[in-house]
Write a structure and sequence with these properties.
Blueprint: E1 8-12, E2 18-25, E3 30-36, E4 39-45, E5 51-58, E6 62-63, H1 67-74, E7 86-97, E8 101-110, E9 113-126, E10 130-139, E11 158-168
Antiparallel strand pairs: 1-4, 1-11, 2-3, 2-11, 3-6, 4-5, 5-7, 7-8, 8-9, 9-10, 10-11
Length: 171
């Protein structure tokens, strides 16, 4: 990715990483915000500078600061965590472009449904031992079977914001 980012395996540091979402509800009057506390991942920087990897979210770890809503989000109406406990982003290619811009091509899987996902991340920091990527992208929840929408209250796209810190994996 850069000269400072060495080839090899990298492990996500969950204590220094965040994955959050926000979605307008109540006909656009209220923004629901939440964070996933269960986040794991790993990646590999290849000799040509490109990278591949996987980010896995524990779907049940989503916390919106409202226990009743969180229980509903875990139900079959939304994430169906009993049958689909993980949300996975498989990165097929991540390539550094124009200094600190990273073009990411991958596949997002939620509720057992996979869809292609392409977005731009920013290389926020990198050295021989750690790298940090920031990204924000949108997802159409209906494409993943998350179509529950009582009285048309929930419309539009869900915005996902991430800060992912990776450390060099032990050899």
């Amino acid at each position: 990715m850069t000269v400072a980012v060495e080839t090899g395996l990298w492990q996500l540091d969950p204590t220094a990483s965040t994955v959050a979402l926000r979605h307008k509800t109540m006909w656009g009057l209220v923004t629901v915000k939440g964070t996933f506390s269960g986040v794991t991942g790993q990646g590999e920087v290849r000799p040509d500078g490109s990278a591949v990897g996987t980010l896995t979210l524990d779907a049940a770890s989503l916390d919106t600061k409202n226990a009743k809503r969180d229980t509903h989000l875990r139900s079959a109406d939304f994430f169906d965590v009993d049958n689909h406990p993980e949300i996975t982003l498989t990165v097929r290619s991540a390539e550094l472009r124009d200094g600190k811009t990273v073009h990411v091509v991958g596949q997002l899987t939620a509720r057992g449904i996979s869809r292609p996902l392409t977005f731009t991340a920013s290389l926020a920091g990198a050295d021989a031992d750690a790298l940090t990527l920031d990204a924000e992208f949108t997802v159409d929840r209906a494409e993943f079977g998350l179509g529950w929408n009582q009285m048309g209250m929930i419309r539009g796209l869900t915005t996902v914001t991430t800060t992912l810190r990776f450390s060099r994996a032990a050899a």
